[in-house]
Amino acid sequence: MVRGMTTAPASKARISKAVIPAAGLGTRFLPATKATPKEMLPVVDKPAIQYVVEEAVAAGLSDVLMVTGRNKRPLEDHFDRNYELEEVLRHKGDEKKLSKVQESSDLATMHYVRQGDPRGLGHAVLAAAPHVGDQPFAVLLGDDLIDPRDPLLMRMTQVQEELGGSVIALMEVEPEQIHLYGCAEAAPTEEGDVVKVSGLVEKPDTEEAPSNLAIIGRYVLDPAVFDVLSKTEPGRGNEIQLTDALQTLAENPSLGGPVHGVVFRGRRYDTGDRGDYLRAIVRLACEREDLGPEFRDWLRDFVGKEL
């Protein structure tokens, strides 16, 4: 049990479903994303979306719903079987590559739903309601890759199962960066990495931000969020903001339990813009046992000569 957390009734429902919104156009990566979904851009030798699904599975969430849009068929193909390719590799006796090809199709039970007219993250989450039903569920955004050595999502599901309500992932950022994120107003608890959230603001001006706790792309949500989202008016950017719905739940715990935050201090790789995407690839490649030693030697030599 989470120590020092007795302010809300425990939820006994076992979380098994993950929702991954993947309907965005990826305009920051044009022209690469003109015909290729941004979620399929490679991070070393796997598409970014596979890291996200692997994280969900590692946390015990074996049922994955991907909320997609137009031109996202490659996502479905990646997590489906490719019998022709598998047969070619089997015929060549290349078991290593065959295993890698089959890995993505064996990861989880995958489902897909179209968001239709994209109207924000809250709208994408609402599209998952028929699949999720009345059980708590997780939402994972593809721009944030969490290192598997730092099991954030597993910690969040633990907190949710003990306390009920919803749990969001938070990370401390420099105050001048908070305008890039949703921001939480929160009070500490006896558990060092858990805070009680009382308010949320989407991308506040620096001088108006209630803290430097930024919301990153992991949520474990009570199904009450669907009813709240269905009544949430478009907010910032004329989109239905998940942050606004969570603000309602934080202010009115009777609607669906409290909102807590897990403050993450581990390794996070941001693939949301070009510079961070490149840095994520370099960091992950450096840490790979099969690539790291040689790549690090080359990188040292390259940096030494170029800088």
TrEMBL record:
Transmembrane segments: none annotated. Keywords: Nucleotidyltransferase, Transferase. Its EC number is 2.7.7.9. InterPro entries: GalU_uridylyltTrfase_bac/arc, NTP_transferase_dom, Nucleotide-diphossugar_trans. It holds the Pfam family NTP_transferase. GO terms for biological process: UDP-alpha-D-glucose metabolic process. Residues 17-281 form the Nucleotidyl transferase domain. It is an enzyme of class 2 (transferase). This is UTP--glucose-1-phosphate uridylyltransferase.
